[in-house]
Amino acid sequence: MTGNNGRDLRALFSSNDRRVEAAEAFTNRQGQWDLVQSALGEHLARTRAASFDVEDLEAPRTNILVFHGVGGIGKTTFSRTLEAALASAGERPARWGEPAWPARPTLLPVRIDLARSAGTDFERIVLTLRLALAAHLGRPLPAFDIALRRYWEHQHPGESLEEYLNRGGLAARFGKALPQQVQSVLSDVAQALLLPGTVGTAVGALTGALTTALRERRQTVRALAACHRLVDLLDAEPDLDSLSFYPHLLAFELARLPADQAVVPVVLLDTFEDTGTRTHRDLERLLQRMVWLMPNAFFIVTGRGRLQWADAALEGQLDYTGPTAWPGLAGQALPSPRPAGSPLASGRQVLIGDFTPEDCTDYLARRLTREGRPLIAPELREVIAEQSHGLPLYLDLAAHRFLELHRGGRTPSADDFGTDFPALLTRTLADLTPDERHLLRAVSLLDAFDLPLATATAGLSHLSAAARMVERPFVRRDDFALWPYHLHALIRSTLRTADDATDDRWTDTDWKRAAARALAALGAQWQAAPGPDRRLLVGCLRQGLALARDHQLGLDWLTDAAFAYTDDYVWEPLPLPVRDGADERIATAADALAELLSALARRQHEHRSTTVSRLTGVLDSHLLPAELADLALYYRAKAHRDLGQTEASREGMSRVADGGGRLAPDAARGLAHLARVSGDFPAALAIARTLGWPGRGNRVLGDIHFAHGDLAQAATAFTTARTEAEQHGNRGEQAIAQANLALALAFTDPDRAGEEITLAEHLLAGLDQRATTLTVQVAALARRAGTLNTLDEARVLRTEVRDAGITAAQAVLELVLVFHHAVTGEQDKARAAITRLTEHTQTGDYSYCVDAAHHMAGLRMTEPSTVSWLGGPDTVRARWHGLVQARRDQLRIQQ
User: Fold this and answer.
1) Which residues contact 169 (CB under 8 A, 6 or more apart)?
2) DSSP 315
3) pLDDT tens digits, 312-344
4) Measured between alpha carbons, how far is 402 from 399 in angstroms, rounded to an integer?
C-alpha cells in the first residue's frame, strides 16, 4: 500500500537497507492536467455569468469531468496529485506549470475515496463536504445546517454530531468547527423567532416554528426565505433520501457568500466503480443527485468505467439521464494538450491512457532509490518498461518483485521479469460480473472481436454481457478496424499466461472449448458474408490459424478459406504470433497450413529457391489433407518453373492435374506454360483451348500470341482475360492480365501503353504480386525503347529480377533491351543483350525469346532453332522485325 504522504510502506518494510527509499512516483499526465484546467476555467466563467442561477434545476449540467481507465493505470495517484495541485497552498508537478484561473473565487479541493475498503457511505460523503467548507469558511451555512441538525436528531438519536465526527476520524481531518457552527445557527434562528432559549435546542419545535415563519414570509427569517425549497425539505421525512437533496441547500449558501469569501468546491470522487453495480445503483443515484443539485461546485470523478448518465435508457434508475441533461458525458475527450483558452471538447469522459515508454522508465527510476539514485539499473528499466505495455500497475508490481529479489542478496536481471503477475489478473477481474469474467477470458483468445464474436466465443446466448464488457476501460475500440474491440495488450497476455488462482479459473479443457467456439464463430462470420470480402477473409484466416495452431484444433473451414485466399492472387501477409517457448517445427495440420500460406505470401519477397524449400518442408510433414497438399505441390511446381527447373515443375503440375482436385485447371494451365516455355507451341495451344475461365485460358492464349510477335492478337486475349477477371471479382487476376496487356502494347502503341501501365499500377495498389509488378516495370522500359538515354534503370531492374529468381522476367527484360538497341541501330549492344539472354535460357527454356531477339536485331541464328512455331518461323521472324521498323517510323514522325 502507498500512504497519503506518498511513502510506500509495503516496500519500506521489505528491506533491511535503510538507504532504500520507496515512494509513489507520479509521471507526467500533462494532457489530463490541461483538460482539468480548461474544464475548471469554463466552469468558473459560466458560474460568474449574470445568467447563472444556482436554483435552476432544469439547465443541462457540465460541472463534471470523468477520468477512467483500467485498474492500476494511476487514477488514484492522479486524483491525489490533483487534490494537492488545486489547493491554494498546494504543490503541483513542475511540468504542469501555474494554473490559468483567477485567484477569486478560491478553489477548495475535497477528495473522497469511494472504495469499499474506505467504508464511505453517502452520509459520510455529505458530512465530508460540509466539514471541508466549515474548516475553510469558518462560518455557518444556515439553510443546510438547520436541515442537517434535524436529520441528525432523527437518524442518530442519543449520539451527538461531535461524538460521531470524533469516532469516525473526520474531526481529526477537518477540525471541530461544524458542531459549533450548527449550534450557532440554531441559536440565531431561535432568537429571530423569539423562542425560549431552552426551546432553541429542541430541533423539532424549532424547525416547526421556522417552517411556519417561512410560509408566512416573516421579515425575521427573510434571509432563509430566499431559499424557496427549504420549507419543503424541512417538511419532508428526514431520511437518507431527503439528505440527498440537502446539497441544494449547500449550493444556495455558497451562492450567497460575499465576493471576498467566495469558494468553489472541487470534489474529487475516486474509485467510483465501488459505488455499486449496473443493477444496483443506489449510491450512484444519490451521488448523481448531489452533482446535479450543486451546479456551482465542480466534480472530478476517477474510476474504471465511463459514467452512463447520458444514456437515456437509464431513466428510472437515475433521476437525471440522457445527453440533454449531461451533454459532456455523451462524448469522449482526448487527453492531449490544447492551446490555452481554447474551448473544451464536448466529451468530458477522458480515458487515462498508458504511460509512454519514456514515462515508464522515468517512473521506475523514481519509484525505488538509494541515496537519491535509482535502484533499478537503466538496462533493466528498459526491459520492464517494454513488458509493461505502459500499464503503471505492472511497473508497481515489478518494483516490488525487484525488492523481493534484492532482499535475497542478488541483483535482479531481465530474466526475472519474463512472466506476468497474477495480481494483474485479480485486479482486472475484481469488479466484473460472472458473465463479464467469463467473456473476458474468452476474448483473450482473440486479437480483436465484435459483440457477436465475443458472445459466441464465450458460449453465451445473449449479447448484453458483451455490450457491458466492451465499455470497460481495458477494452480498446477502433471503429475503423474489421472488428472494433481488442483487449489491452498486457491484460490479454496476463489472462492467457499468468497463474490463475481465482475461484472461477478455467481448466485447459475450458480454454480448448472456448478456442473451438471462437474458431467456429470466425468461420461462420466469413461464410455468412453477402459477397466476397477480402478483408474479412484475411482477418478470419489470421485469427483462425492462430487458434487452430495454439489449441490443436482441426482445420474445418480453414481449408476453404485457404483456397479463397490463394484464388485472388493478392498475397497479403499472414503473420502469426510466435508461441513463447514453443517449438516452431511443423507439428500439426494448422502449423503446416500456416507455413504453407506464409510461404506463398512471402514468395513475393523471397528468392524462389526459398519458396521451394519451405513448401518442401510442408509436404514432407504429411500433415495436410490431400487437397491442401495439392496446393503446396502446385505452388512448389510454379516456383520450380520460375527457377527454370522445368522437369521438376512438370512433374508437380502433372500430379496435381491428374488428381482432378480443385487445382486441376490451374495445373493444366501450368502444363500449358511449360509447353510454351520449352517451345512446344502446338501442345501449349491444344491445352489452352481446353482451359476456359477456371484455367485462365485467355491469358495463356495471350502468352502464346505474344511469343509469336502477334501482339494485336495478344492484346485482344489479355483484354478478354481482364474482363473475365473483373466479372468474377478477381482483382489479382485482373492485375496480371492488365500487366501483360500493357507489355504487349508497349511494343506496338507507346501512347496507349502509358494508359494501360497506369491502370496496371492502380490495380496493383494494395496487392503483393512481385512478378506482376516486375512485368509492369519491364513494360515501362519497352514503351520507351529507342528513346532511353541511359540504361541505369534497366541495370537496377535486372538486379531486382535476379534477386527474385524469376527466369521469365529475366528473359523478357533482355528481350526489351534487344528491342531498344535494334531500334537505335546499336548492333554490338544488341548482341551483348542476346548473349545475356542466351545464358538465361541455356537450359532450353524460353529459347523462343532468343529466336525473337535475333529476328528483331536482323541477326542470323548461330544455332538451329528448337522451337515448334505455329504457322512457321518466317511469319514469326517478319512480325518481330516489323516491330523494330514500326518503332523507328513512329520516332521519325515524332521528330
Assistant:
1) none
2) B
3) 878 888 999 999 999 988 854 444 434 344 444
4) 5
Cell of 398: 515489478
How would you classify the pairing of strands 263-270 and 106-113? parallel
pLDDT at 5 over 50: no
Bond before 105 cis per omega within 30 degrees: yes
**Whole-number Å distance between alpha carbons of 469 and 478:** 15
Determine whether 864 is exposed, middle or buried from the number of CB atoms within 10 Å of its CB (0-12, 13-18, 19+). Answer: exposed
- With bands split at pLDDT 50, 70 and 90, how would you rate the model's confidence at 24? low
Domains and CATH numbers, the chain: 9-27+355-418 (no CATH), 30-53+62-351 (no CATH), 698-894 (1.25.40.10)
Instruction: Pick the closest to residue 347 from 363, 359, 336, 358 (CA basis).
Output: 336
Q: What is the mean pLDDT of residues 824-833?
A: 94
Q: Lay out the sheet containing 368-370: strands in order across.
A: 20-22, 368-370, 373-374
The CA R_g of the chain, rounded to the nearest whole Å, is: 39
Cα–chain center distance at 253? 48
Q: Say whether 354 sits in a helix, a strand or coil.
A: coil
Q: What does the pLDDT look like over 880-894, one tens digit per residue? A: 999 999 999 999 887
Which DSSP category does 25 fall into? P
User: What whole-number distance in Å separates Cα of residue 887 and Cα of residue 819?
Assistant: 9
Q: 510 with 442: CB under 8 angstroms?
A: no
User: How far is C-alpha 735 from the chain's CA centre?
Assistant: 32
- DSSP string for residues in 519-580: HHHHHHHHHT-SS--HHHHHHHHHHHHHHHHHTT---TTHHHHHHHHHHTT-------PPPT
Tell me the pLDDT tens digit for each residue of 836-865: 999 988 888 899 999 999 999 999 988 889
Residue 430 has pLDDT above 50, yes or no: yes
The DSSP code for 345 is P
Q: Counting beta carbons within 10 angstroms of the beta carbon of residue 734, is it exposed (0 to 12), middle (13 to 18) or buried (19 or more)?
A: buried
Element (H, E) at 67: strand 64-68
Q: What is the pLDDT of residue 490?
A: 76
What is the per-residue pLDDT across 116-162, written as a single tens digit (0 to 9) for each? 877 889 999 999 999 999 999 999 998 898 889 889 988 998 888 88
Residue 25 has pLDDT above 60, yes or no: no
Q: How far apart are CA 857 and CA 820, in angstroms?
A: 10
pLDDT reported for residue 331: 59
What is the per-residue pLDDT for 833? 93
Residue-wise pLDDT for 76-124, tens only, equals 888 888 898 888 666 777 677 777 777 778 899 999 999 887 788 999 9
Q: Is 508 exposed, middle or buried (0-12, 13-18, 19+ CB in 10 A)?
A: exposed
Most distant CA pair in the chain, distance: 135
The model carries a pTM of 0.63
Q: Which of 743, 72, 177, 670 is nearest to 424 (CA)?
A: 72
Query: Mean pLDDT of all residues in the chain?
Result: 86
Residue 507 burial by Cβ neighbours in a 10 Å radius (0-12, 13-18, 19+): exposed
Residue 19 CB contacts under 8 Å (≥ 6 apart), including other chains: 370, 371
The answer to whether the beta carbons of residues 691 and 664 sit under 8 Å apart is no
